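Throughout this chapter, every protein is written as a compact record of paired, labelled lines. An example of such a record is reproduced below:
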Amino acid sequence: MFKQAFAFISCILVAQSQGCKTVTTVEDFDIETYASAKWYSHQQAENVYSPKANNYCVTAEYTILDNPTFPWGYTVGVNNKAEDVTGDVSGGDLCAYSPESDGKLAVAPCFLPQRSAGPYWVVAYDEAEGYALVSGGQPDEVGEDGGCTTGSGINNSGLWIFSRSQSRNDALINKVRGIAKEAGFDTSVLNDVDQTKCGPQAEEASLLLVDEQSEEVCLDDEGEFNFGFGRIKISCEWVSAHTLFGCLFYSGNCPATCG
C-alpha cells in the first residue's frame, strides 16, 4: 500500500513538473451501477495490450463478486474482449478492486497480488447519457496537442471512451473528447474502434448481404431473348403471362417471375 501511495505521489509530482493537469475522478462512484451492463469502446489509445490492430469489437464487462478472491481480495471481475480485422479474439478475465469510492479502480490478472494492479480511473461517467471516460492513471507525458498522455506499457497506460451502446454516436463521442481535453488529456492519441460487425450487428450485416445477393440472383433478365431456336423474341413479361409453359423452359431467364 505504501509503495502504491509513493508511486502515485511521484507520478503527480512528475506530471505537475511537466505541466500536466492533475486528473480528478468521479466522486461517489457507484461501482454496482457502472458494472450493471456491458461497455463498448468507441475510441481508445494504443498500448502494449491494446494495439491498434485490435480496434474491433472492443468491450468491457464487470461483475461484482459475492466474496473477495482468495488470497488477494479482489472484489470485481473484469472481462475484456477485442478482435482484429479477421475476427480473431483477444482479451480475457481479470480482477479489480476499488480502494476508494472516487472512481479509482486497480486491475490485474487475478493470480497477481493487488500491489501489481494497474490504475483504471473513471474520469467522467454519466449513466443516463451512457458514457464513460477512463484513463490508465495520471497522464505525465506532454502530448502533441498540448495535453498529456499516460504511458504505453502494461500499467499506467491507456485512455478509453466507452458507451453503453454498440452503435456509434459521434455527437456523444465528441462530447466526451471535449471532457477529456478539458481534463488535460492529449486526445490525438485516441483511435476509432470499429463496432459495426460485432455480435447482433454482424448478424444484421450478414442478413443484409444475403438479401442483397438474393436480389442480385433473383433479378429477371432485361429486354428480350430468343424463343426456342427460332428468330422470335420474348421477354419475362411474356413468361409471366404464360407461366406454366414459360417457367418450364425460361425460369433461368426470369427467376423473379418464376419464383
User: Anything to note?
Assistant: The chain is about 25% helix and 25% strand. Residues 42 and 146 are 23 Å apart (CA to CA). Confidence is low (pLDDT under 50) at residues 1-17.
